[in-house]
């Protein structure tokens, strides 16, 4: 497999691990990008974007990055908070009055960002294409009774997060989530990152290769077993009541790419992911573009909730909108995927293995995007091998518990 792009000599092991991903770990098409002190030190890509046609992965190739989108959505809320336009400790109803129905009047904005809102799914059956109808989804969520008392526990809002945070952003700014992200973040930074992809960019999108659960050795997370055996449970409602969005192939449809789905709909590549986080690794600004003031960064990086996740059924750790490092190596093999990063780092992975994060202490930003999904919800060995190579190049070591330290 020919790897294209550039890589500083200090980070040569990143190139080696990317090559190993193709040779040994089943990678099909992928890109990885790393900045250090704001400067790109790794910008690599290779493989096939569309196996059906043989189209190669190029410098311009983008791909569906799933829940990496949550970081972009969370960032829009923090941009507003940093400007004093959004109080993260205020009730959601201050900005979205209708949200207070059915026992949600005390839900705080921070509860939504930290997956404590109790709305990982809705109980009313959703019609086909519901995720492409913003007004339908936000009005349904506003009317929904929470599945647990908001603020009492956390559970991953895998598919609803973007509608919840995005509607708060829309109520504050008057702009849709995707438009605000473009105006205030992706446009000023020049990112290849869209929440709502323009149609003329469709030829650049790599085709997602989903996991085939019938293949030998494929171990699906226990979340899926829970969903199938208990469809009324939070995992069941999340995975089975989504208007068909999780049906095979649907996420690659033009309708899905065009929709502004701030939980899972983002289209980007490794460069877009790493450069989204670059200002956050450098005090909140890059090249004259300030996203947040330095004092906002602790809200984005400090742990807000940790412990057993009420939806995915394994331990998770979240700041306000961003994932924190978690080592689940002690769990059964099908639930071991986690996120092994230094404690100062914060970011978000996407289903199947994509990842972006910032590490302010190391002044590093990182992005990895690929088209062949792994079976789990966390970062699999392909992405983790690249992360590990970055930190080894920086002279970090990893403890037996999985934490990287300088």
Automatic annotation (TrEMBL):
GO molecular function: any one?
hydrolase activity
Q: What keywords does the record list, in alphabetical order?
A: Hydrolase
Q: Which domain of life is it from?
A: Bacteria
Q: Which SUPFAM superfamilies does the record match to this protein?
A: beta-lactamase/transpeptidase-like (SSF56601)
Q: Which Gene3D superfamilies match?
A: DD-peptidase/beta-lactamase superfamily
Keyword Hydrolase attributed? yes
Which residue ranges does the record assign to the Beta-lactamase-related domain?
19-378
| TM spans (from-to) | none
Under which EC number(s) is this enzyme classified?
3.1.1.103
**What's this protein's name?**
Serine hydrolase domain-containing protein
Q: Which organism is it from?
A: Lentzea kristufekii
Q: What is the lineage of its organism?
A: Bacteria, Bacillati, Actinomycetota, Actinomycetes, Pseudonocardiales
């Amino acid at each position: 497999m020919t790897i294209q792009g550039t890589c500083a000599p200090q980070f040569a092991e990143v190139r080696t691990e990317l090559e190993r991903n193709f040779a040994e770990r089943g990678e099909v098409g992928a890109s990885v990008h790393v900045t250090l002190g704001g400067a790109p030190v790794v910008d690599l890509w290779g493989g096939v974007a569309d196996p059906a046609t043989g189209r190669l992965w190029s410098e311009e190739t983008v791909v569906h990055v799933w829940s990496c989108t949550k970081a972009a959505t969370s960032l829009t809320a923090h941009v507003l908070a940093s400007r004093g336009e959004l109080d993260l400790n205020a009730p959601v109803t201050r900005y979205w009055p209708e949200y207070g129905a059915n026992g949600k009047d005390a839900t705080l904005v921070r509860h939504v960002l930290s997956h404590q809102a109790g709305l990982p799914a809705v109980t009313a059956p959703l019609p086909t294409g519901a995720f492409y109808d913003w007004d339908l989804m936000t009005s349904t969520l506003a009317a929904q009774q929470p599945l647990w008392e908001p603020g009492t526990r956390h559970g991953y809002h895998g598919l609803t997060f973007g509608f919840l945070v995005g509607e708060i952003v829309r109520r504050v700014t008057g702009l849709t989530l995707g438009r605000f992200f473009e105006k205030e973040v992706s446009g000023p930074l020049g990112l290849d990152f869209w929440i709502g992809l323009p149609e003329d960019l469709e030829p650049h999108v790599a085709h997602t290769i989903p996991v085939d659960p019938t293949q030998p050795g494929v171990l699906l997370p226990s979340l899926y077993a829970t969903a199938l055996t208990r469809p009324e449970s939070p995992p069941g409602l999340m995975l089975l009541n989504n208007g068909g969005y999780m049906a095979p192939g649907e996420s690659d449809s033009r309708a899905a790419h065009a929709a502004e789905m701030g939980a899972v709909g983002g289209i980007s590549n490794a460069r877009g992911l790493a450069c989204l986080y670059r200002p956050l690794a450098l005090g909140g600004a890059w090249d004259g573009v300030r996203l947040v003031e330095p004092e906002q960064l602790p809200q984005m990086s400090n742990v807000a909730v940790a412990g057993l996740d009420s939806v995915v059924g394994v331990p998770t750790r979240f700041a306000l909108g961003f994932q924190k490092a978690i080592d689940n190596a002690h769990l059964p093999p099908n639930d071991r995927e986690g996120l092994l990063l230094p404690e100062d780092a914060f970011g978000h992975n996407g289903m199947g293995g994509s990842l972006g994060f910032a590490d302010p202490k190391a002044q590093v930003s990182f992005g990895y995007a690929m088209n062949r999904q792994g079976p789990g919800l966390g970062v699999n060995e392909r992405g983790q091998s690249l992360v590990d190579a970055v930190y080894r190049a920086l002279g970090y070591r990893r403890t037996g518990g999985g934490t990287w330290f300088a």
